[in-house]
Each structure stands twice: as structure tokens, then as C-alpha cells.
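@channel sequence for tomorrow's demo:
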Amino acid sequence: MNEVIKKTPFRFSQLIKEYPKFTGKLILYFDKKVEAGNSMFPGTYYLKNGTYHREDGPAIEQADGDKGWYLNGWPHREDGPAIEWGNGDLSYYIHGKRMTKKEFKIWQRSRKLDSFFSVSPD
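C-alpha cells (generated this afternoon):
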């Protein structure tokens, strides 16, 4: 896996210009106090072809505690919230579509039922 370590402030658009098809792990850190503004925050970012992507954990892990699960650039997580904010708030997404917690639980139950009924008898 490619790994790039950069000092922030660092804009996502800069990354895409510098590495247009970047796939790998991007680690950002502060070496002094700077204003965040429109920059990416310090943390670890996993990208595939220039978009957030990771299949085995969060694609975004920021130093402030925010975590985001993404597939092909879309927030997505089937076993819990796709975004866990550092303040404890949770956001649920499936293939980029935001859901309430209730809608997400209904979606999960329907997936379990689908897999139960799709099993063929011996």
C-alpha cells in the first residue's frame, strides 16, 4: 500500500492534483499551530483512485476523534453508523444515502430477512 505523510494545512484538491489516482494511506499532521479553514484535518485517510475508500475499517480517522466509513467516495457502513463524530453524535449512511437510526435498523432487519429467505433448503 502506498503511504504519504503530509503536514497540514493541506487541501483535498491539492492531493488530487498531486496524486490524481492516489490509492493508499494518507497521514496528515500539524507541525505548528495553524488555522484549519478549508483544509483537511490531521489524521489518517485511506483513498482509492483519489476518493475515500476502505473496506476493513474507517477511511477517515481524524485526530479530533471523527471517524468515517466510506466505499468508493460514498459514506457507507452496514454494521453501524458510517460517521462517528468526536462529540459522540452518529450519522447513518448506506451507499451515500443518509438515514435516521430507525430507518437504518429497519434496513438492517430487511437485509437479515433477505439473507434468511435466500438460503436454499438441502
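heads up for whoever presents: The first strand starts at residue 2 and ends at 7.
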